[in-house]
Amino acid sequence: MSGKNILSFDSVNLDDEHGELIILDQTQLPGKIEMLHLKDIYTLQVRGAPAIGIAAGFGIYIAAKGIQAEDYGSFLEQFRKAKEYLNSSRPTAVNLSWALNRMERVVTSNSTRSIPEILGLLHDEAVAIKDEDIETCRRIGEYGLTLIHDGDGILTHCNAGHLATSRYGTALAPVHLGRERGMNFRVYCDETRPLLQGARLTCFELLADGVDTTLICDNMASQVMKNGWVNAVFVGCDRVASNGDACNKIGTSGVAVMAKYYGIPFYVLGPTSTIDMSMKTGKDIVIEQRPPEEVTEMWYAQRMAPEGVKVYNPAFDVTEHELIAGIVTEYGIARPPYEESLKEIFRKKA
Ligand code: MRU
After folding, report:
1. 133 is catalytic
2. pTM score
């Protein structure tokens, strides 16, 4: 499989005939391209906020197909149990509960239909979540392209690209869409400790698209900005609060602080499904804590930290809205003050 361009692989897919969720094993990239075929949905081994939403849709559909129920009441009860279980797999990305709630609405608004009919509707809804994501990302790319010029330098953190969505990505959508139109940007990729999504995933997919790509360690971003190489910072998001505070991969808020210092516009790009208007500020967002071994030994030939050392390993951080020049969605670019502009984005959506 490794001869094929990584951009031709789907990060998440459904094999309806065999009742399998198929996901690209991103822990093996870039060395090995391997697809995982999951029948039992124990955990969502998927990353990237939109991809998590797509996997949740397919995952709950597969779980629903396995439900043994005599009547609607029993089906709904078991469906909700499966939903609760999937919803607990990752706490930060709101796309997970967004997709699961969307699937639940299919069940609750069709209570008079037969269970096979409901299953058919659940299948269609899950496929729609994936298909809509492609168009959503393309539109984010269109709006993002209005913020930059051919040849500009873009700094990005983590991976908010093709691999984190169904196509194009969010933060990287302007870059991929620009390539389709013969443009090329110079992209600086933070390696993104501790899981190295920037080095392993972002660099891999950008090189596959012929993008002028430079890998930097996270602690080099300030120097690259000082050199005058960066015209804009583009990052993705896992949950945005109604005041514009944006939660994304750990290290993002530090990049925003540096961008402010150097006078570089810092943009957050994401679909409206990642905006949680029920959350007032970023302080309320639950941050996933990860195992210490990701910091002390992962990727190293031997452990690099003394046994017994305390490790703090949050997977995400929150960038305060004051540091964000704009939030780029599929319905346009929200500008400060975000309380108002994000409401306007949702009015457009409605
Ligand atoms: O822990 P991960 O790899 O799922 O974290 C991913 C990120 O933080 C991405 O930047 C974010 O999900 C945006 S995805 C378009």
Report:
1. no
2. 0.96
